[in-house]
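Table S5 (text form). Sequence records supplied for joint modeling of the two-component complex.
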Amino acid sequence: MAAPRPGWSRRAQYGLFFSFIAAIVALGLGLILLAISIAAPSRFNDLRGLALDATSPITNSLSGINATANGLMSGAGDYWDAAEQNAGLKAQNAALRRQITEARAIMLDNRELRAALRLREQTPTAVAVGRIVSSSFESPRRFAILSAGTGDGVQEGMPVRSPDGLIGRILHAGTVDSRILLVSDRASTVPARLLTTGQAVLCQGRGDGSVDLKPLEVGRNPFKPGDVVITSGVGGLYPPLIPLARVVRLQGDGAIGVPLAALGSTTVAIVEQPYEPEASLPPPPQGDEGPIP
Amino acid sequence: MARSALQSNKRIGQGPLPAAAYVPAACVVVAILFCTLPIILENGWFPDFGFLMLIAWRLRRADVWPAWWAAVLGLINDALSGAPIGLSVAVWTGAMLLTEIAERRILWKDYWIEWALAALLIAMNETAQWQVAAWTGARLPFTAVVPTLFISIAAFPIFAWAVAGIDGWRLRRR
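The corresponding structure-token record, covering 467 residues in total, follows.
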């Protein structure tokens, strides 16, 4: 097929010509809009909230079907080798019960010591509970859709966690749904520390479901495969002591880890207040700083 | 011959669908809505369904819509997919104009040239997404978008096939 020629009709020729002028104008408008959304990312939040709410019937209703199908599949899988699983779970249960007793003793000790020091600490309060219903599976950015919005008290910037660990923070909030910036997104940096040694590290997403872990102090690589990293509470946004990631591989002076809150199996996500209230203000605009050296 | 003339011709009175001119744009909107499906993945390797549907229609027919419609469709895609507003508006309209320029240069178009053109447009789209992500604070190495680039290029024939079927249905040409 050659280039479209509308024939000898003047009207058709002009129509084609003006549609191209309109397209060039639209291209310019698009570039202006893009420049605005890069310079002022919160400019179009109303539009985004509207779009989130408009598509929430699709996402939420289909997500129910999806969860049921998944439940049937994994449920059937669990019956397959029930006896072996049962024995394993019994052993695990006994080990965990011993650990819980130890942990209770430590907690009691801790409470008494804190009371002696008169240390006051805000307990994080849950704002809303929702489900992860979708994710940005066709974009290099890592977002997820949460089935809770401003109607439930969710605000932009609030941290989101699951019982397993930190998921991310609220990026755009609609009335019934909101979009989460996951910890595995490249633009997400979480101050953290190693559970074993307490050394301060930074956790930055890699865009593919894993995270980069870098120690803040230069020196020997502090990581070992299997190490667990928890949030440190530095910066005031994320509450401290939330499990964050597990180290899987060492790389250079840092390591690569996977978030402990696996998205696919996460059923509930809890939205919490920012740890320090002033941190709920929008962060200062970040330039393009490249990867953390 | 005389006998066949007596048979009723079922094709008489059959033309394109009443809304045939809007079917392609509706297809693109449906493809954009794929991004709201409850698929939860750790990586973003799926192709950009809306963009693939857009270029599949455009490469099949030059007069499928006025070029500026791509801007409106791109705005819908930006709002729904969480991309920065304006990214798809610019890239999708740019793809329409680039296709136009390319088709004026190409003397004859066969399937391989169409696929190569589609691959070029897909690469442009992925590069723009990657560059804008870098400007908004998520600078990834380019190797991170290579898998999705290849998956998208490999997925284009599926979309071209679907578009051919829908095109035949909307014009009632079987």
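Note: The mean pLDDT of chain B is 88.
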